[in-house]
Amino acid sequence: MTAVTQPQPLAVRRYPDLLARAAIGMFLVVNLAIIHLMFVSAGPPAYNAFGSVGRLLGLYLAFAMVVQVLLVARLPLLDRAFGMDRLTGWHRWTGFTVFWLAVLHPSFVVLGFASHDGVSVFRTALTLSAQLPVLLGLVAVALIMLIVGLSVRIARRRLSYEMWHAVHLLLYVVLLLGIVHQLYEGTAFAINLLTWLYWWGLWVFALGALITGRLIVPLLRNNRHRLRVAAVVPESDDVVSVHVTGRDLDSLRARSGQFFLWRFPGHNRWWQVNPFSLSAAPNERSLRLTAKGVGSTSAGLRDLPIGARVFAEGPYGAFTLDRRTRTATLLIAGGIGVTPIRSLLEDPALGGDVVVLYRVRSGADAVLLGEMRNLARERGARLHVLTGRTGGANQPFAPENLRALVPDVTDRDVYVCGPMALTNAVLVSLRRLKVPSRQVHAELFRLAG
């Protein structure tokens, strides 16, 4: 008989998170203070205020790029404290910040030179772009504009996940061009040996974290665990489960609700990677992912041969029972978002009163429903399958309807995963019902880069 592991007390579980958040906040404040100190110590540029503003914006731009690198480095400290989904949201907004700084920095620099020399802005821009360091910087700006343009929601919807991910690989080219540009054009961090060591030490730290988190650690882990496809099980016409086995899987310390970045060498190109949640509680023998065929990678999973190699990065995500603050739990799943919810429902640490809401268009779309019913029966959980098109009187996640289904919703931790529209509707209703934000846990899968 499997013993049920009760979650740690809230104070014990959240103390490391609070320390991590304080450390991250201190990192940002201290570095911004140092950047302003370097800017002041460097003195005003030889030309005018336009150039001075341009130089400060250049420092902001370089630091924003450092922050961006750290956000995509898969740092365990950040993942545990905030969750990869929230970090990816910050990555998106940091990307827009980088975009505007990349536009404004050269604009002010050109204005400064044009005003000082008394020539047109266009002629000044042409003269500066003839210099190789400046040209490399302008190429980086053009690539940033391309990446951000394809990340805008209207453009994003027209791209497959695989293509969108491939476009984000251009970020590494931007980093290289940006570093070369700083080597030749940087002045504020070349005041003395101390500022030089600080600035390039910051970049070494960021790039070291990136290489370690995105290359070295995954390579070492996959060499150790030797993941292989053990079984491929169709769950419906367009949904398939893949069972993965390997060595020493317990040392991965994966948790229900988490996800991996999956690659299938020989079946897909090396750059095709997808975030799929664990759809069953992980154990020392196997991992299971369940995916709907919406892209080239996920659609081809049913053709994976038994024994095929698997390359996985992770586990990632804070969508786990470690985040609970209450003994009662509400699990809300929409469509294929049922996968982490089903995993949480199986987790031995899940105790107390549990309610599950599973939203699908029709009963035929309710994949893993048999497993959900069996698990709910074993745990004494209440499972409600909500069907039909949303609209008119059928608004199951409207505040009044959600309260009718779960009258004590404010006294529960709420886990929600599903399509963006469903998740947003649930989050809005929870705010209107005054469910404390610390009790709300959402997985949105906005992963990029």
Automatic annotation (TrEMBL):
Q: Which cofactor does it need?
A: FAD
Domain FAD-binding FR-type residue range list: 222-322
Gene Ontology molecular functions: 2 iron, 2 sulfur cluster binding; flavin adenine dinucleotide binding; metal ion binding; oxidoreductase activity
| GO CC terms, sorted | membrane
Query: Which regions span the lipid bilayer?
Result: 18-39, 59-78, 90-114, 134-154, 166-184, 196-217
Q: Does the keyword Transcription regulation apply?
A: no
Which InterPro entries does this one have? FAD-bd_8 (IPR013112), FAD-bd_FR_type (IPR017927), Fe3_Rdtase_TM_dom (IPR013130), FNR_nucleotide-bd (IPR039261), MRET (IPR050415), OxRdtase_FAD/NAD-bd (IPR001433), Riboflavin_synthase-like_b-brl (IPR017938)
Which Pfam families is this protein grouped with? FAD_binding_8, Ferric_reduct, NAD_binding_1
Which keywords appear in this protein's UniProt record, sorted alphabetically? Answer: 2Fe-2S, FAD, Flavoprotein, Iron, Iron-sulfur, Membrane, Metal-binding, Oxidoreductase, Transmembrane, Transmembrane helix
- Annotated compartments: Membrane
Q: Does the keyword Iron apply?
A: yes
Membrane-topology annotation of the record: Multi-pass membrane protein
Name the UniProt record assigns to this protein: Putative ferric reductase
- Give the organism, scientific name: Actinoplanes italicus
